[in-house]
Request: fold
Amino acid sequence: MVVEERLNHIVEKEGAVHLTLIDPDSQLPEVAGKIAHEASLGGTDAIMVGGSMGATGSTVEQTVQAIKSACDLPVILFPANAGGLAENADAVFFMSLLNSRDVNYITTNQAIGAPLVYKHGIEPISMAYIVIEPGGAAGWVGDARLIPRNKPKLAVAYALAAKYMGMHYIYLEAGSGADKPVPVEMVAAVKKAVGEATKVIVGGGIRDGPTARERVKAGADMICTGTIVEQVQDVKGKIEELVKAIKS
Ligand code: 1GP
Reply:
């Protein structure tokens, strides 16, 4: 529970957590290390490593290694399937894509991956993954029945089911690079339903401070950004903007 407790402690003390997502398929490990270093200087709280396609095996392991050499932040895996696990990470978002049509993404990959998580002593952080329109590659790969943006009740239903099944975190995902992030009304409805103890992460299409802040004000405990750090020259400056916007 080391990483999970650390994140929850930051939520308690600072109001919200910022997570930087690095897709191992998007750059060489040494570039991933540089991005993580800059993001760390900018004040991000942890680095997530994963991606919908091509983020498997030694690519993930080498990226994790480079990040760990470049900064002291916890590295949390964000795997699309059991192939996205790497033994040198600190923790894994042990997630189930609850609104998938495909049992592989709900329980089968979890069963394949669980013995590896156990064997390598990677900290599992229990998480429900709920994909909202437009859903992006995550929605396509995971065969999600996308939650319509104007139906917060559907997201609430999945979030409550996740809470009652004992999951600690709920990730509302609009898809990497989404043109529209998860609606504020949906974030608010989910947080109101699940309460303080269950942490709500929001990601997909968040690119600036005001967009991040609105979602934290609505109840998000953690904000994840990925694509924007691949696009800007000044990673430290962009992360500073996002972090400043969400911390109380
Ligand atoms: C994707 O939610 C994450 O899984 C991050 O999304 O790349 O759009 O920041 P972005």
Summary: The chain has one domain: 2-234. The longest strand covers residues 123-131.
